[in-house]
Amino acid sequence: MKKNYLLTPGPTPLPPEICESLSRPIIHHRTPQFQAILKEAEEGLKAVFQTKNDVFMLASSGTGAMEAAVVNLLSWGDKALVIEGGKFGERWTELCEAYGIKPIVLKVEWGKGLDPAVLKEYLNKEHAIKAVFSTLCETSTGVTFDIKALAQVVRETEAVLVVDAISGLGAVDLAMDDWGVDVVVCGSQKGLMLPPGLGFISASKKAWKLVEESKCPKYYFDLKSAKKAIDKTDTPFTPAIGLIIALNEALKIMRSEGLDAIFKRHKKLAEATRSAMLALKLELFAPDAASDAVTAAKVPQGIDGEKLVKAMRDEYGVTIAGGQGEMKGKLFRIAHMGYISEFDIILGISCLEKVFKKMGYDFELGSGVKAAQEVLLK
Ligand SMILES: *Cc1c(COP(=O)(O)O)cnc(C)c1O
Fold first, then answer.
1. Residues near ligand 1 (Cβ within 6 A)
2. Residue closest by Cα to atom 6 of ligand 1
3. Phi, psi for 280 (deg, rounded to 5)
4. Element (H or E) spanning 251, and its range?
């Protein structure tokens, strides 16, 4: 007998209320019944995005919302800056290039955050940058960027700040309006506790000016059509009805826990996980900018990282993530994002310990679990 546990940074586990809502019969979308749900979900999303701007719901994975940001803000030949500190930062570069926009790339060493002074230098040096593309939680490295500080730099320029918050939103703080973030994109399968399939995007007034001027080709992701529809509590195309119904349930759960309590829970789970990694004599990959949504640790010498992840999953049913891109086989990542509680983390760490022992890694059995428990007892 094997039970399955999901500790990956997307998809994340589904609460039972969400599973139940996903099993309901479908309803038609051009009805007052669905409109009421759409309206409630929209309000709930605004609370999670911490914004008064519209939040558009797209039937796509998170990358669709990223693509929507690029094609709605820019035109061929525009200048953009990409903060690239991992695989998802690279995605912004690739998306820009796909539309004939050659971005200036501000490379950040994987596992590190970005000093806002460095961004300021770039923006002073390069004029006419229309958009700065960044990432809240760089899921591939376990870094959370200091978006509040970066926004302070960008808001003093003509450029708009675009944040890929696909894996951070609903786990760590991102106060869109208060911090002056212009565009936030998100996906459903990370902090929002849903299956994949919904993309979200919200744009400030400053960003909307660019939306009106943008000449990039677009059709499905045209935010001007989305805006016309949302003003009538509608969507331009058939929405992902079932997922939006489930989203509404997820937002209710989030509302009842409260954003501050959610951030606190994630922080505590992250601290417990990091403490366990150190007790297991492992090196954190992002010690100075560690994310409260996902922890990345280096695979110890002599251990095959891919085998580690595979054994945890295939022998014990505990799915964590390995490294991506240049860190393949060298990292493992434990997510504590969304519908995750203390004992999910304890379970994950105990499984990690068991597989480490079987693979011959030398450490004191139980030391990781003990360190995590000590943090969680505080
Ligand atoms: C998961 C993730 C994405 C990609 O989203 P998809 O839903 O797979 O398209 C983009 N950025 C970050 C930071 C992510 O964690």
1. 9-10, 61-63, 88, 135, 137, 139, 164, 166-167, 187, 196
2. 62
3. -85, 10
4. helix 241-257
Q: Map residue 197 onto helix, strand or coil.
A: coil
Q: Is the pTM of this model over 0.85?
A: yes
**pLDDT for 260-301, tens place per residue?**
999 999 999 999 999 999 999 999 999 999 999 999 999 999
Extract the tokens encoding 299. 């695979």
Query: Position of tokens 């912004």?
Result: 92
Each domain of the chain, given as residue ranges in start order, spans: 5-11+258-376, 16-256
The residue type found at 152 is Q
70 Cα: distance to centroid of ligand 1 (angstroms)? 15
Which residues, including other chains, have CB under 8 Å from residue 241's CB and lie 6 or more apart?
A: 26, 27, 29, 34
| Residues whose CB falls within 8 Å of the CB of residue 139, separated by 6 or more in sequence, listed in order | 9, 10, 86, 87, 88, 166, 167, 190, 293, 294, 333
Hey, which of 135, 166, 294 would you mutate to test ligand 1's pocket, going by the most ligand atoms within 8 Å of its Cβ? Answer: 166
Pick among 3.40.50.300, 1.10.10.60, 3.30.565.10, 3.40.640.10: CATH of 16-256: 3.40.640.10
Can you tell me the distance from the alpha carbon of 13 to that of 345, in angstroms, rounded to the nearest whole number? 13
**Of residues 265, 121, 88, 282, the one with CA closest to residue 191:** 265
Question: Which ligand 1 atom is nearest residue 136's CA?
Answer: 13
CATH H superfamily, domain 5-11+258-376:
Aspartate Aminotransferase, domain 1 (3.90.1150.10)
